[in-house]
Specification:
By secondary structure, the chain is an alpha+beta fold. Helix content is about 30%, strand content about 20%. It is globular and about 30 Å long.
């Protein structure tokens, strides 16, 4: 379950669908990833082929969005 956001644009996109604070060409993938993250119970629930889930330091995780863009979560 998503409890908080550090990025205002990502929060607005998740809550209202507004693309104003994100790269519009990332919208479809971000929508799928945020929906999955909201339903996830463990980080392994985000281990979808092509998303390149990998651990970061101190309990943080990352999934690939596009190019150098990543979405991180705990």
């Amino acid at each position: 379950m998503i409890k908080t956001f550090r990025h205002k644009g990502l929060r607005a996109f998740f809550e209202t669908g507004s693309r104003a604070g994100i790269q519009p060409h990332h919208a479809a993938r971000l929508k799928r990833q945020l929906t999955r993250l909201d339903l996830a119970k463990t980080a392994d629930d985000m281990n979808v082929p092509g998303w390149r889930l990998h651990p970061l330091s101190t309990g943080h995780w990352s999934v690939w969005v596009n190019g150098n863009w990543r979405m991180t979560f705990t």
